Amino acid sequence: MPFTAWLCVWCSPLFVTWNKQSRRGQRLRGCIGTLEPRHLHTALRDYALTSALRDRRFEPVSHREVASLSCKVSMLCAFEQASSWMDWTVGIHGLIIDFFVARCQRSATFLPEVAGHERWTREETIDSLIAKAGYVGPVTPALRASLTVTRYQSSAASLTYDQYCAAAQPAAARVQPAGGMTVTVPA
Asked: Is the pTM for the entire model greater than 0.85?
């Protein structure tokens, strides 16, 4: 099956993450996705735009930033119920937690790479995820034990803007001016 046809039929939960490269390293600029399977040909477009322009934690990505961005797509798989809040491995599993507090349901997720990137322990990860779900009270052993935890894995690929330009344009049609922006010259 041709690649474009495969994109039209394949469904997967996914997240799209934008990072900006600067002298101080990478900085998150947006990360939004879905835990429900979606057709890739529409989900990639929809979540690339949504995470770049509508992640409420950040200002929308501007045109000036595009050349310093990288985009990562994480396709999520292997969802399974954890036997406890400790039944997962840092750097391997992403997490979804669900819990009720004062008759209010709360939930949140972290992608598999978050805990390792932050250098968190399992307990620190769970406590951060509880806070991400909007809970502001004390995190007790009883609260942790009450969590419903779903663990999952992901397969991720990333591309910088320069890599995208190199892949998208024939080599003979690319010119690199002094400003660093790739310009397409009609062939």
From this structure: no
Q: How many Å apart are CA 32 and CA 64, to the nearest integer?
A: 21
Q: Cα 39 from chain centroid? A: 17
CA neighbours within 13 Å on the CB side: how many for 143?
Answer: 18
Report the Cα 150 to chain-centroid distance in Å: 17
What are 40-95's pLDDT values in tens digits? 989 999 999 999 999 999 999 999 999 999 999 999 999 999 999 999 999 999 99
Is residue 153 helix, strand or coil? strand
- The CATH number for 59's domain is 3.30.1490.150
Containing 164, the helix (H) or strand (E) segment is helix 161-168
Mapping DSSP to helix (H, G, I), strand (E, B) and coil, where does residue 147 land? coil
Nearest CA among 73, 38, 33, 75 for reference residue 54: 33
Task: Examine residue 98 and state whether it is found in any structural domain, yes or no.
Answer: yes
